[in-house]
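Hi C.,

You asked whether I'd gotten around to modeling the 112-residue construct. I have! Everything is below, sequence then structure, no commentary in between.
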Amino acid sequence: MEKPDCKTIEREIESFFDDDLDTDELDAFLVHIDSCKDCREELTIRLLIRIGLKRLEDGRNFNLGDEFGRLMKTARSRLVRRKRLHRIAGYGVGTVILGILTVAVISWFVLL
């Protein structure tokens, strides 16, 4: 997958908040956010608009730095879990294929 540019990242911010990015997109998004000050600032502004203003209107406290840290930590944890699941699923498919091939080879020898 090719590296996303800033315009792509900005378009993906709402999908990021809604957890609508697939694993590769989420991975690329987080790598870009870590390396691009402008996109990190845009994400922070959108976080303030999306969550902060509502909390402040409700009379609840809101610490933008803490919320941003929590958001990124949660996203990274989600990415790690997804990658593990993909690996496990890959092993599962490989095991099934190996089993089918084993049965086919044994059947072939039995028929000889």
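If it helps when you're writing up: The first helix runs from residue 6 to 17.

Thanks,
B.
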